[in-house]
Amino acid sequence: MAQVERDRPCIHVCLVGGADEELYRWVEIGAEEEGVPVRRTAVQVSEPVLAAFEAAQGSRFDVGVSVTPGRVILHERHMPAEQPVLSLAATGDPRPLCRLMGGNAARMVVRLPLRFAGDDATPEPAPKPQRRAPSSPPVATQAATEPAADQTIVDVATIARVVVRILRERGVV
After folding, report:
1. Angle CA(45)–CA(46)–CA(47) in degrees, nearest 5?
2. What separation in angstroms does the CA of 20 have from each of 33, 73, 93, 115?
3. What whole-number distance in Å separates Cα of residue 97 and Cα of residue 72?
4. Are 56 and 130 in contact (CB under 8 A)?
5. Residue among 121, 110, 116 at smallest CA distance from 34
6. Which long-range contacts (CB under 8 A, 24 or more apart) does 46-50 make?
7. CB 39 within 8 A of CB 8
8. In 3-state terms, what secondary structure has residue 82?
9. Cβ(139)–Cβ(66) under 8 Å?
10. What are phi and psi of 90, to 5 degrees?
């Protein structure tokens, strides 16, 4: 029965450099929120980027995460070993960052866009439609269209910040 557990498709997570055992649980929480299982694994290397790469090599989902006391790294099997998908420095409490990275690892598996620190992880619910009398036709006004335009500008600005941050992390900008 142990063989079945080992072969179960999951994201592999390793703790490197004396990282707190509790941080694994936070990576697991983030991945489980997206519906993807994780498993803690041991790696042969101590360098965090290579540890994440080795974890990804052993995962049937081809995704690995390494956690150190100051950094969380997400890697994918097909990427070059020295180029992780995402590497985030943990400043302050590392638990939210571990949760975010676990969620991002799972989002890679299910092919959803990644989330980044500072992004609103819990989108606001859509406003409830208001009922109107059946005989009154809908009336479009300028005031009704302005909030949508403002939200579009905010969305574009957020996307631009994320793209610039990724480009800087990869040394392109």
Report:
1. 100
2. 21, 15, 12, 24
3. 7
4. no
5. 110
6. 46/16, 46/17, 47/16, 48/16, 48/17, 48/73, 49/73, 49/75, 49/81, 49/82, 49/84, 49/87, 50/81, 50/82
7. yes
8. coil
9. no
10. -95, 105
* 56: β partners: none
Q: Which helix (H) or strand (E) holds 50?
A: helix 48-58
Beta bridge partners, 64, equal: 12, 75
Indicate the SS3 state at residue 86: strand
Stretches in the chain below the pLDDT threshold 70: 1-6, 118-150, 173
Q: Which of 56, 71, 62 is nearest to 13 (CA)?
A: 56
**pTM (whole model) above 0.85:** no
Tens of pLDDT, residue by residue over 48-69, are 999 999 999 999 999 999 999 9
65, two tokens:
């995460």
Residue 43 burial (CB count, 10 A): 21
Class of domain 2-114: alpha beta
Instruction: Return the domain boundaries, the chain.
Output: 2-114, 144-173
Structure tokens at 89: 């420095």
Q: Which residues contact 9 (CB under 8 A, 6 or more apart)?
A: 37, 59, 60, 61
Token duo for residue 98: 């571990």
